[in-house]
């Protein structure tokens, strides 16, 4: 039976999971650490950098658990997904306020220029539509897209719904942007266990614990607290080169 497992994840998906460049934080990490602790298993984290590197380590069993991931068919052979889903991810299409006509469907985006963070998973259906119809630039750093939108280099930006709200607030851009009714996709995020893990986990018991944390409302409290922790950290580093929103 496992006594300790190593967790890592995407460094820029606050408040679900994020990194301070030393270790992994976020609501998903805290929820899982709490659930595993109840079964005598310690969770330690390792910041590896970009998500592709995390996935490579995960496939090899060097990382044992990713706290929030979609059910990606390409990872099915490497992953045991924990039920239930710990978070539902939706996307917001953001435009400058007072735009004469808000986009409402994917087709309304065809004549416009868009931007999204690099590595953001938008779903197979939307990706195929975008490949044939849309102009979407990808940025390395999360806040770049909103700055490009602010100065008019693009017409819209795509972000996870709550993440977009966080960046708008941190960049002091309230009142300049608004969300559109465009529905990109919705995903359930699950914790994923590496199939290369060389010890056993009481997954049935852990699943029961996670369900109880969600049912009791404790999971929602953890998520809300994590949001403010990330906001506080980011505000402390807002004007430094170390900032995760640079």
What does this structure look like?
By secondary structure, this protein is an alpha+beta fold. The chain is built from seven helices and 13 strands. The strands form three sheets. Strands 6, 7, 8, 9, 10, 11, 12 and 13 form an eight-stranded mixed β-sheet that branches. Helix 1 (27-37) packs across helix 7. The longest helix has 19 residues, at 218-236.
The radius of gyration over CA amounts to 19 Å
| Content-based structural category | alpha+beta
Q: What general form does the structure show?
A: globular
Percent of residues in β-strands: 15-25%
* Helical segment count: 7
Helical residue percent?
25-40%
Can you give the mean pLDDT? 90
- Encode the helix/strand succession as letters: EEEEHEHEEEEHEHEHEEHH
Largest sheet: 8 strands, mixed
Distance between the termini: 42 Å
| Overall strand count | 13
Low-pLDDT ranges? 240-246
Topology overview:
Blueprint: E1 4-7, E2 12-13, E3 17-19, E4 24-25, H1 27-37, E5 42-45, H2 51-60, E6 65-69, E7 79-81, E8 87-96, E9 113-117, H3 124-133, E10 135-139, H4 144-151, E11 156-160, H5 161-170, E12 177-179, E13 186-194, H6 203-215, H7 218-236
Parallel strand pairs: 1-5, 9-10, 9-11
Antiparallel strand pairs: 2-3, 3-4, 6-13, 7-13, 8-11, 8-12, 8-13
């Amino acid at each position: 039976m496992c006594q300790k497992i190593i967790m890592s994840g995407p460094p820029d998906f606050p408040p679900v999971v994020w990194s301070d460049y030393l270790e992994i934080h976020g609501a998903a990490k805290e929820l899982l650490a709490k659930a595993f602790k109840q079964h005598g298993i310690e969770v330690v984290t390792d910041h590896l950098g970009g998500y592709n590197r995390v996935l490579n380590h995960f496939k090899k069993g060097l990382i044992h658990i990713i706290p929030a991931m979609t059910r990606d068919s390409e990872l099915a052979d490497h992953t045991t997904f924990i039920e239930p889903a710990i978070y539902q991810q939706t996307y917001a299409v953001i435009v400058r306020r007072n735009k004469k006509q808000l986009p409402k469907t994917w087709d309304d985006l065809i004549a416009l220029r868009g931007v999204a963070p690099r590595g953001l998973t938008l779903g197979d259906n939307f990706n195929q539509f975008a490949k044939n119809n849309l102009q979407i630039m990808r940025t390395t750093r999360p806040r770049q897209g909103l700055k490009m939108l602010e100065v008019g280099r693009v017409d819209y930006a795509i972000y996870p719904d709550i993440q977009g709200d966080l960046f708008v607030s941190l960049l002091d851009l309230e009142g300049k942007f608004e969300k559109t009714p465009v529905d990109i996709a919705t995903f359930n995020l699950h914790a994923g266990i590496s199939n290369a893990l060389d010890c056993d986990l009481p997954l049935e018991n852990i699943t029961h614990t996670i369900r109880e944390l969600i049912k009791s409302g404790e999971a929602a409290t953890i998520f809300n607290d994590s949001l403010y922790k990330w906001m506080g950290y980011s505000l402390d580093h807002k004007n430094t080169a170390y900032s995760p929103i640079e």
